[in-house]
Design goal:
Largest sheet: 3 strands, antiparallel
Oligomer: single chain
Strand content: 5-15%
Structural class: mainly alpha
Strand order of the largest sheet: 1-3-2
Order of helices and strands: EHHEEHHHH
Distance between the termini: 52 Å
Number of helices: 6
Number of strands: 3
Length: 109
């Protein structure tokens, strides 16, 4: 369970930054919630909202080539080890294999 209130000492780590950056870039935009006489906390939802806003304004999508190279062919060298079939089947061959695997005849139109 993640607590709703995040203490000042934990808020920078929650956002993945150091305390100086947090104090300069994030804290001015947050509502301070006092805990006891000296404790300071922030609402986790406000911290998440700050991240969403920051991401919308400053985030950049990854280059497509970093995610998937459209021109690269898949490496099928380990296909047999992983259970991936590399044989191309005709519709009737596939129907027969499906029937053997499931014990049911497929509805082929």
């Amino acid at each position: 369970m993640i607590p709703r209130l995040i203490r000042l000492r934990d808020a920078p780590a929650y956002l993945g930054m150091d305390k100086n950056r947090f104090n300069e870039e994030v804290r001015p935009y947050l509502i301070i919630i006092p805990i006891g006489e000296h404790g300071i906390s922030f609402d986790r939802i406000d911290l998440d909202a700050w991240v969403d806003h920051y991401k919308a304004c400053s985030g950049r999508p990854a280059k497509r080539s970093e995610l998937w190279d459209e021109n690269a062919s898949p490496d099928w060298s380990n296909a047999a080890k992983s259970g991936i079939s590399t044989k191309k089947l005709t519709d009737s061959e596939f129907a027969k294999a499906l029937e053997r695997a499931t014990g049911k005849k497929p509805n082929v139109t």
